[in-house]
Amino acid sequence: MTRLAALDGASIDGGLYHWFITRAQHAPHWFDNLVSFYASYGLGLFALMMVWCWWQARRGRSATAMAMALAVPVAVVLAYVANDIVKSVFDEPRPCQVITSPATIQPCPGVGDWAFPSNHSAIAAAAAAAILMVDRRLGAIAVLAALVMGFSRIWVGAHYPHDVLVGFAVGAAVAVPLMLAARRYGPPLVVRLESGFLRPLLTA
Fold it and tell me: Which listed residue, of 15, 44, 51, 195, carries a Cα 20 to 30 Å from 74's Cα?
């Protein structure tokens, strides 16, 4: 795909990014380690939430609930694909390659590993938006977890704030219409699948 001109992320919100990484330098080590761990592995939390949605839908024996639950991981995958397409168009160097002081609490990704938009943020936002449409209580937790994921990606120096915000927008923009379509068109498909060998996975 033909790339657009390089995106100068530092001119957009480089000052805010610098404020974050400076705070990270002066934060307690335990806090930086916790944020760094979540920035790297926190997406696993959303996977656990997806499993919970599926399990609850299976126990509830509702074709609509199951269709919605099964649509959550689909929304996440499509959001990742959509975000990666956007990322393939823009050349925005990682902020830690441009603003080199202070040092970030995670190693800076190599040249060619573009920053805009944030894949982690897009995945987290898609999962949160989708889960919110399945279960409001769990969805509220997912939304908070997504916001923390976005924060963590800035804190460790991997992204500018605008990378995270656009990633959030892409994730939500993909997930919401897909979940609405799943609610409308998915139940008949679930009912048909329940009559086959997938029945144990779809209903208790």
Answer: 195
Residue with tokens 């199951």: 66
Residue type, 47: A
According to DSSP, residue 113 is labeled: -
CB 118 within 8 A of CB 153: yes
Residue whose tokens read 């800076």: 108
The DSSP 8-state label assigned to residue 105 in this structure reads S
Distance CA 117, CA 120 (A): 9
- Alpha carbons within 13 angstroms on the beta-carbon side of residue 116 total 20
Say which residue the tokens 């441009």 belong to.
Answer: 98
- CA 38 to CA 45: how far, in whole Å? 9
Both structure tokens of 82: 């959509």
Which token pair is 7? 């995106």
Q: Which residues contact 118 (CB under 8 A, 6 or more apart)?
A: 83, 150, 153, 158, 159, 163, 164, 166, 167
Nearest alpha-carbon partner for 53 in 169, 142, 152: 142
Residue 1 is predicted with a pLDDT of 47
d(CA 24, CA 5): 31
Three-point CA angle 134, 125, 59, nearest 5°: 20
Q: How many CB atoms lie within 10 A of CB 90?
A: 18
Mean pLDDT by 10 residues, the chain (204 residues): 61 88 92 95 95 85 83 95 91 87 86 87 96 93 96 93 96 96 82 67 63
Q: What is the pTM of this model?
A: 0.87
